[in-house]
Amino acid sequence: MAAILTPATTGTHSTRLALPIAKPKLPIRRTHLVRCVHRPEISPFFHGAVGANRADWQSACAILSSKVATDSQHHQQTPQHHEAGDDTNHSLVPVVNGHSSAAAALDLVPVQLPQPLTIADLSPAPKHGSQLRVAYQGVPGAYSEAAAAKAYPNCDAIPCDQFEAAFQAVELWVADRAVLPVENSLGGSIHRNYDLLLRHRLHIVGEVQLPVHHCLLALPGVRKEQLTRVISHPQALSQCEHTLTAMGLNVAREAFDDTAGAAEYVVLNGLQDTAAIASARAAELYGMQVLADGIQDDSGNVTRFVMLAREPIVPRADRPFKTSIVFAAHDSEGTSVLFKVLSAFAFRDIGLTKIESRPHRQRPIRLEYETSRGGGGAASTAKQFEYTFYVDFQASLAERRAQNALAEVQEFTSFLRVLGSYPMDMTPWSITSNSSSSSSSSPGSQQ
Ligand SMILES: O=C(O)C(=O)Cc1ccccc1
């Protein structure tokens, strides 16, 4: 019988600063540019609040991220001088006008947006007021930032360079929550994030669904015919695949860590031949031209994000809840375990909203020995994948039927963990022209 892993059985969060993290595919030093008409004034905020040490910087980062989310005057902010190796992550970048090289350009100036945290930056920062600190992967303008704002409308959104850093930010108390995209109506599951959910000990405390509206962004003045390359998050590239082809764009597609980061990269490097797929908000933040608007292959393109916390929430039965579990089968059960698990829910009238299998990380392969039939044949070995299953079902752990279903599932699984039991996002999808607009309702505001 499997043990259900809950916070009590899994122990507390761990520190994993030494874990190797994949390098961004196109490494850059991040600085943000916006088109600016007036000569910017020196902002006292940057001189006063950003100190020389990392803790000061992180605090400032948290404040800045909320400013960026709310401050429509950000175009008036200030360039900063950058010394090589400067820990404060602020830099003065050559101005760019989109018609010539980055160094020679004239009408774009750097604006200070919060810099993404890396694993190396993670030490607990003092909390500012009562605002919830919400870590997300990407840079300002990423869809994950919009999801954080939808889930927690007045939060400090903290950008992180990798998903791993967002998880660790919560584990190390640098952030209170992380927001993580897990699946998309066009592109399917974001598998890496399911693997991370299993590797870490955070709990799902809520979900938000965000309509995603992609734009094709280029430097000002660039025409479609000049493009040889489009860069973006792999999900964004796959969500726009047919439209790009239908637009007659004969371009190479290249994966980037996040959509807004791709937009920023084009600007920072003055790339006249490269477009990025990102949000309209990213176009605004980085001073880019929108070459095409709404280029996703389906207008009902929605991404589901989950919110993660160090502690689970107390499940309730007075509103629609969803519960996410992950399990592995006993060796002897083979594929029949899936049938049994599904029956445990079906007999109790519990609907499933998701079922996903992933190769088992620790034991990806099972060897099956078989002696060949007929006269003295040698034993052959068949290699079978071992799977871990992720299931979301529509019931709260506060309900008896859900508890009974899980007790039954436990009987024929070797491993079972409840990732979280949390309120369903019931907000109707309004497909607007800008996915960054936050909804008036905030499914996560109670968690
Ligand atoms: O890259 C981003 O902006 C993200 O937040 C990840 C993502 C990418 C594409 C669709 C939804 C989320």
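^ 3-phenylpyruvic acid complex. Residues 1-110, 432-441 have pLDDT under 50 and may be disordered. Residues 138, 142-144, 181, 184, 212, 233, 235-236, 258-260, 303 surround 3-phenylpyruvic acid (CB under 6 Å).
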